[in-house]
Specification:
Layout (H helix, E strand, L loop, with lengths): L1 H14 L5 E5 L10 E4 L7 E2 L5 E3 L6 E5 L6 E4 L4 E5 L4 E9 L7 E6 L7 E4 L1 E2 L6 E8 L2 E8 L5 E9 L3 E8 L4 E8 L10 E6 L1 H4 L7 E4 L6 E2 L5 E6 L5 E6 L7 E6 L6 E5 L5
Parallel strand pairs: 1-7, 8-15, 16-23
Antiparallel strand pairs: 1-4, 2-3, 2-5, 5-6, 8-12, 9-10, 9-13, 11-12, 13-14, 14-18, 16-20, 17-19, 17-21, 21-22
């Protein structure tokens, strides 16, 4: 009888053990209803909170992430089957494309300047009221970011630095400038056309460190290198609003090096005359 009573008591205690629960709170401290809770190891089994902000999670849950559309996700460790996960207030960012047309597959992105945090990106969709394409980037933390636009041509990118200092709503006007195709020819020191010489565009120092709110467009750093053709000719894309340098070869290349500064309005063509190291 004593053994049976002990087993009965143990079962009774187990049946009344509190379930593992994560309570999600908004930044103002109130309960967050219909928030999503994900436990580590159970990422495919999201749980929604009730009106009290509580969600019953698997008993083996040790850490949970809480998410709600208007806030930045929070994370909490469970202790004795309990945790409070606090959502974080952030900035809801919208990009509004008001300059240029970056093509059918145009998208905008926010990249943290300190390389901490996640990059967020969305394609542009037509906004019904104004007819201007918009990209809803969602909620991010305050701080310094690079706004980036990519579209057609795919190797071209436009960027601007921005400081998001206040929580709430932020709409950023995005400007896309298609590249101007600058044509030229590379001439060797002997006066003959120089073939298979790498040609690069360098944004001038002043343009590379533009203040927040100023856009600069350029060829992506990961795009394939450009080389002069058999007749020495080349075509390079340049930002029609930025001063820069066009380089042929390199200063350490025994075949020579040439560099020309260009600025708007663009010339119809340029000549890069190589000089060998002495």
């Amino acid at each position: 009888m004593r053994i049976l009573a002990t087993v009965t008591l143990a079962l009774g205690v187990a049946s009344f053990c509190p379930a593992a629960t994560v309570t999600v709170l908004r930044p103002d401290g109130g309960p967050a209803a219909t928030a999503v809770v994900l436990c580590a190891g159970h990422e495919k089994e999201p749980v929604l909170t009730g009106e009290d902000g509580a969600a019953r999670v698997p008993d083996d849950c040790r850490a949970a992430t809480c998410m709600a559309g208007a806030y930045i996700s929070g994370r909490a460790e469970l202790v004795a089957g309990r945790a409070v996960c606090r959502l974080i207030e952030g900035v809801h960012v919208t990009l509004r494309l008001i300059g240029g047309n970056c093509g059918e597959y145009c998208f905008g992105a926010l990249i943290p300047a300190a390389r901490e945090g996640d990059r967020v990106s969305r394609t542009f969709d037509e906004e019904s009221d104004s007819g201007q394409p918009q990209a809803q980037l969602g909620v991010v933390r305050t701080g310094a970011y690079t706004v980036e636009l990519r579209g057609d041509p795919e190797e071209w990118v436009c960027r601007m630095s921005v400081e998001l200092q206040r929580t709430g709503e932020e709409t950023i006007d995005a400007w896309w400038r298609r590249p101007f195709e600058l044509r030229g020819v590379v001439i060797g020191e002997d006066g003959a056309p120089a073939a298979d010489v790498p040609v690069r565009v360098r944004i001038a120092e002043a343009a590379a460190h533009r203040p927040p709110g100023a856009w600069a467009c350029m060829r992506r750093a990961d795009a394939p290198d450009l080389f002069s053709a058999e007749d020495g000719s080349f075509v390079v894309p340049v930002d029609p609003a930025t001063t820069g340098l066009i380089d042929a070869g390199s200063s350490w290349d025994p075949d020579g090096f040439a560099s020309v500064e260009i600025a708007p309005p663009w010339p119809s063509s340029i000549t890069l005359r190589m000089k060998r190291r002495r």
